[in-house]
Amino acid sequence: MLPTGKKPAVPSAALLAFCNAVPNVFWSGLGLTPISMFCYQCMARPWLYGLLAASLLAYAIPKAWFGRWQLSHRLAAYQRLGVHFVNRFTQHGDIVHSLLRRWYPQYRHVRGRAAVPALISATYHQERFHLVGLVFFLLTTLYAAALGCAGWAGLLLLTNVAYNLYPMWLQQYIRVRLGASSCAPSPPPPRPA
């Protein structure tokens, strides 16, 4: 038990989960509400199940292929598209991180180079999830356009870009940043006195 008035140096796992769930739930609600409404109101169930099944095939794409559609290997390309700005409002993003650092100054999301491989692996998992979403949203957008529902098609296209394409670019951006920081020369060891 901690002495009264002292708080731990790092946040609890529950607090971390809560702080990162807030932006996740917010963006998921904004991104998934329009497509859910369209599918419920306008899409025949066999089409829904077929498009979902086709989209889930994206989970089978090997990780090695992800580099083929990576936008760039330079941070500047992502920054021109505002991906660094999007990173402010996401789970493990700048706002969540700065709030946690205000309460727990020693907190670091990535604690040294040993944590980098796990973070890179997590970015591939997130990108794969949003790739499945990107495919499903795209197929649903085409379905809406084929029905002549131009308003729905436009809304689904817009939410696809915001909810899937930008998060995919964000995962790529994170990997580029991690690669840039891991390639930076480390400071020379201190000289013996």
TrEMBL record:
The chain crosses the membrane at residues 47-66, 131-158. Pathway: Carotenoid biosynthesis; staphyloxanthin biosynthesis; staphyloxanthin from farnesyl diphosphate: step 5/5. Keywords: Acyltransferase, Cell membrane, Membrane, Signal, Transferase, Transmembrane, Transmembrane helix. InterPro entries: CrtO (IPR044021). The keyword Transmembrane applies. It is a single-pass membrane protein. It is found in: Cell membrane. One of its GO terms (molecular function) is acyltransferase activity. GO terms for cellular component: plasma membrane. Belongs to the acyltransferase CrtO family. Catalyzes the acylation of glycosyl-4,4'-diaponeurosporenoate, i.e. the esterification of glucose at the C6'' position with the carboxyl group of the C(15) fatty acid 12-methyltetradecanoic acid, to yield staphyloxanthin. This is the last step in the biosynthesis of this orange pigment, present in most staphylococci strains. This is Glycosyl-4,4'-diaponeurosporenoate acyltransferase.
